[in-house]
Amino acid sequence: QVWPGLRLVSLNMNFCSQANFWLLINSTDPAGQLQWLVGVLAAAEQAGEKVHIIGHIPPAHCLRSWSWNYYRIVSRFESTIAAQFFGHTHVDEFEMFYDEETLTRPVSVAFVAPSVTTYINLNPGYRVYEVDGAYPGSSHAVLDHETFILNLTEANVPGAEPRWQRLYRAREAYGLPSVFPADWDRLIRRFQDDERLFQRFWFLFHKGHPPREPCLAACKAALLCALRTGRSADPGLCQPLRPALPFPRVQALWRQWRFC
Asked: Which residues cross the membrane (predicted)?
């Protein structure tokens, strides 16, 4: 419990990692962590608390069985889970969660923050979240976020001093009235039709250092599909985007862009 009304849950995402071959023995719920999570969320719901979930690997990057079970938990406790925060991918993105009945009503968003590590052709970056404050009845929801980067090209000029600078603020950059799940869902749909806005996202996605190869039709379809797919390998989540390519092809394309 961080303070009255808000509980923080940290998940060990090694128990969902696609690189953890020990999970071939039990990939459904290793160590009973998901069952434990359900118990924590149920108790929080009963107590009228909100919950923030933090973890390293985003759910859509997890093993399929773990990812689908986690997705179901988020759908069940949509009124209790106020926010989800992950990392791992080194880039600036998000993953959507929808109701399981129709896969159309957005219920949650997993924010995926960029990394301070450069990895491959990336500037260091970090994210600051603005969250509804600690007062009775607070939603504890994310109200906005801003990302800061260290421009390595500028920092490596002889005699230059490293300087962190704000890259963007979410609501300002994307013209969002708020940053609730429905807003991110509408933003994905705007990306489909507004190429300039999408290329702006592609620039920010790479912390101001996008690859020289532009993200065009096939790449764009794969990225938008990834943003909408909060659970691993679910073609149903991409269907509203009307992808021109079969889902396995979309998945294969996106794996080429992944850093992790």
From this structure: none
CATH of the domain at 250: 3.30.750.180
CB contact set of 200 (below 8 Å; sequence gap of 6+): 173, 174
The token pair that represents 4 in the structure block: 């009255």
pLDDT for residue 38: 98
With beta carbons less than 8 A apart as the criterion, state whether 148 and 129 touch: no
184 located within any domain: yes
Residue 1 lies in a domain: no
C-alpha span between 179 and 170 (Å, rounded): 8
Give how many domains the chain has, as a whole number: 1
Distance, CA of 205 to CA of 199 (rounded, Å): 9
pLDDT given for residue 54 in this prediction: 98
- By the 10 Å C-beta count (0-12 exposed, 13-18 middle, 19+ buried), 216 is classed as exposed
Report yes or no on 167 lying in a domain: yes
Amino acid 110 reads A
Tell which residue, 71, 88, 91, 52, has the closest CA to residue 237: 71
At 138 the pLDDT is 97
Beta-sheet pairing, 106-112 with 81-86: parallel
